[in-house]
Design brief:
13 helices, Aspartate Aminotransferase, domain 2, alpha/beta, Aspartate Aminotransferase, domain 1, 393 residues
Amino acid sequence: MNQLATSVFDAEPIPPEARQEVEGLLASGDLFRYTAALDQPGPVQRLEDEFATLMGAKYALALNSCSSAIFLSLQSVGVCPGDQVLIPGFTFAAVPSAVIHAGAQPILVDVGDNYRIDLADFEAKLSSQTAAVVISHMRGHTSDMDRIMALCDAAHVPVIEDAAHSLGTTWHDKKIGTIGKVGCFSFQSYKLVNGGEGGILITDDEDIIARAVIMSGAYEHNWQKHRLNINAFAIHQNMLPLYNLRMNNLSAAVIRPQFAEIERRVNDGRANHDYVAAKLNMSPFIEVPKPLAPERRAPDSIQFNLVDFTDDEAHRLMAVSKSNGMAISIFGLHADNARAFWNWKFIGNIPELPKTRAMLMRACDMRLPARLTRADLDRVVSGVLGSIKDVKG
């Protein structure tokens, strides 16, 4: 049994700085973001201001999830019922769900064994019927954003970045989430910043933020409390549906103090990932794909491909690793995995994506939190390699 001193499944701890503000909110009962006065921004507004500054974006809107951020982004860039939206075949089920929620049809693009979009398939499927593209930087792996943006800009198709796993990642030193029209981030417990649930979108586009704010649930004239001098608010007042996807003050109070931890968590997470990747890559049965040259990742997990494994051996590896206390999940073999596209029955006709399917059948997934010690990392490595040895001999 290979036990870690700290579980890889534990979420990031909440800093003690959050407690005083949380206790004050609990005592007052003031949990709704719009009870704040116009000249006294509440916790959610302060979070939005701080996150926009952190990312170098003009506007930010805090929401109850990253899924809500993707949905509102689709609505705000003008996606209409029946439109086609391109998404990667390797992403979490929430992404095609957001497209369905917007009344559109997800068009799945093949993904290679390095977990990134197959550009030939992307270019072939980008058409005059494409209303928007959602790029999921799945598990923090960045596809070729130079080529993707060039293709989409030429076709006048807006790009929405699903950066749920990529807070702190850069591409040519530009922050992921600031490359497309809208960037969407997650504060769910297993992300870099732990809010239990929660999300946020950022954009530099005045009309997009105005539409998103109103549709998020800024009824009557509550959009004024966002303190944004944008004429589009008055234009869209009463013209858009209200979906009530707001973040509450309590969530903001838990999330905001963690912004000060982001840089440290990014640096520690990157160091942990690279240390484990180098050790695993020494095995002839493991390949950890290299990042693309312009990418500087901020990983809190590690993915690797099994080399020369049969289906039976891959199934046995999952069972053996679990019994050894270092469970290895294989995306395509883990029952009902929400990241396996063939389990998205709700999208209708599921396409055949041969590259994505082949990758998912051998791609392993393990959390690797920034807080793990070097001794913990050595146990992770020995646990993985030991289980592979048990299977392969």
